[in-house]
Amino acid sequence: MNAAGTGSPPVRVDVGEREERQLAWAYLSRVVLGPCPALTALIDSVGVREAARAVREHALPQVLRDATARRRDVDTAARDLETIHARGGRLVTPDDAEWPAWRLLGLAQLLPGRDPDGAVPLVLWVRGERNLSEFTERALAVVGARCSTGYGDRIAGEIAGELAARGWTIVSGAAFGIDGIAHRAALTVGGATIAVLACGADRPYPAGHDRLIARIAEAGLVVSEYPPGTPARKHHFLARNRLIGSLADGVLVVEAGMRSGARNTVKWARRIGRPALAVPGSVDSAASAGCHRMIRDGEAVLVTGTADVLAEVAPLHLPCTAGSESSGDGRPSGVAAQILAALPDTGGRWPHEIAAATGMESAEVRAALVALDLAGVAARSDAGWFRSDRAEKGGE
Amino acid sequence: MNAAGTGSPPVRVDVGEREERQLAWAYLSRVVLGPCPALTALIDSVGVREAARAVREHALPQVLRDATARRRDVDTAARDLETIHARGGRLVTPDDAEWPAWRLLGLAQLLPGRDPDGAVPLVLWVRGERNLSEFTERALAVVGARCSTGYGDRIAGEIAGELAARGWTIVSGAAFGIDGIAHRAALTVGGATIAVLACGADRPYPAGHDRLIARIAEAGLVVSEYPPGTPARKHHFLARNRLIGSLADGVLVVEAGMRSGARNTVKWARRIGRPALAVPGSVDSAASAGCHRMIRDGEAVLVTGTADVLAEVAPLHLPCTAGSESSGDGRPSGVAAQILAALPDTGGRWPHEIAAATGMESAEVRAALVALDLAGVAARSDAGWFRSDRAEKGGE
Asked: How much is the pTM?
């Protein structure tokens, strides 16, 4: 589970070895073109360079022979890395501290047999200067109808703009309609936004949004699990939707027709434990019909504005369950205790701040915070992480 | 529990005795002006004439002394009965076959200590020619904002009109806004409607709806638990709302502000086990804010039109729980078995039709159907009552 685990810090490698490993990840990314649980398992088991060698030589179990046969002889890894670098980007892999392992925990816990499309991504091709993990510490996905109405556009713009102004990152899919409005609202207030694409990160899709995607790559991040040049294919959109849900604390749908892709994003969000929210509208509006159906069926919570959204995705106290990251007397120990000591009782502190204060790696801090949250001794508000009530009781 | 029970048929009395009992009920109705659980208990115990004598003579336990002291010397019973008769009305009491005991079961099961305002009504003053029990066999309450918008008016009119045209009775409070629209929509399609007032049934309240209330009294029913001439008081409206919920199969709210009385009606509906439904609208509309809040908090189910409403209030198969109205081998016996035999396997039959076919009293049929439903062997659809799946299995 190295690829998705949060318990172990990222692998440290020297420059030459790092380059070799990047080439191996890039090669494998083009061979499988998307998530491949069997390949991830092989890499976890033998390492990425040995896995790449096995794929090249077809020395594989049957399940991987089929998945890799078609493109195993295509090695454009060096050119792909050059292409993404030339576009101000990079290849982010589980080797990197930037790898958002804590964000991908939900996907890592899905059963590959039940959710073949729900696997942890192999790699992420990223354009933009921001650190992907830090950029998603506090993030909301805002998605919705391509054929949105003036009503939906206005509500999406208001909520995305208000949350971006409060320091939230707006994650969306760069599509026409609600997606584009949400990205633009974040950019307008000088806020953070991430576009997750169903094609290579170097390709503007849809073409009509080429300028918008260029602006997002400058001010925020453009993310894809497909190597440069990959065209958008139908099944890529469904896989992309799971990443939108994974990279955010919750998914907000502002307008969705009955067959909208936003409903697929909500399905993924629910499967990986993220709250799904939907904005109601006139019962006459076909653009609200999908939202109404999801609310009625209990798939999404009705929200009417920013305050409702914050109440759902950043509650003052997250639900607590008994945890395992503690010593015999119920108190956290080791790294967890250090991080807990660095948390304020009131207000909040973000993982990268705690990392700076304690000298730990951000990835390590994030993983520990998730464990402390599960143990009920830390919680997160709109202002950051803090010690929760049960921590105080536990300390008495 | 005679006043609210469904197990025993209404009391049979001769004409002279009936008149005396009517006078006693009318006298007590004016003494307590609304529901009075302690008085209902006394009547259940000693009978209505003996209870009236005890009230007149102040020969009462302390709890009833206080509740009756103020008006025990006021006896306008004969005049009140004349007034209601002159207005085409009558006093309906638990003595009468028309008394909607099955509709009031939910109220009868509330704890008087916890819900002092939730008691079974003492009597109902009714104007209109229709039989109250038959008229509420298939009924939907449609309530909402007094300051409704064009949007809410249109949706309320559509749903109330469509349901009334299908044979449903529309129950509401004759207020301005959504209430009035719902009544008018039912009248327009020649359908059934009931206005439940917070003042005497002879008084038009609000005054601006005097013509509407007169039309309802002609074509449908105007109902009040207060004697003629009683003015509408603030606490009457809250008590009235519980009756609106009781007399219907569910409560639909079309537009409600955050402080709307419709939310009180929904509270009662939920307390007595009726589904509560709400129509969403623009998040900008203050007239939809109460609906959105109720949907968000899980107090009401989101509905977008008539089909959604029918799915909630007239499901093809009602939820089943183990019942007690059966003989040792699990099959219904006696009256219940007779009524079950009169039910169709497909389609449906209404209680008054079953009563006509079997020669039983409608009230008896209704009470038995509720028990058969609880036992899981009968269920109700939009087309009437039918034998449910479990009945067929039980008969094998």
From this structure: 0.80
